[in-house]
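Notebook entry, structure prediction.
Reason for the run: the old model in the group folder had no record of what sequence produced it. Starting over properly, with the input documented here first.
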Amino acid sequence: MLILTTAAAIKIENLQKSQEYIDCRKSLQPSDYKSYRDDLLFKRQEHTCTWILDDQRYRTWNEEVGQAILWISGGPGFGKIVLSSFLTQEITGGKTN
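New structure, fully documented this time:
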């Protein structure tokens, strides 16, 4: 059991009211990935990402039963999220929630 003194409780209460604490908590909130993904798909240039549908590694992954993970790697800004969003749309036939 944790027992707080009145002074400690007041310090915690003041910290929780501080803008720095509020900003920190907001930054830890889960993002609205669906809106972000949909926005990326809207911005994607036509005919981009389609190369992966012909890639042998993707085709093997897509055809194997029980293959759970398709590993896509690349540096920052290389388009992993756009490619993943494209594949999600492709695999689900555009029916994503």
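Summary: The radius of gyration is 22 Å.
The old model has been moved to the deprecated folder.
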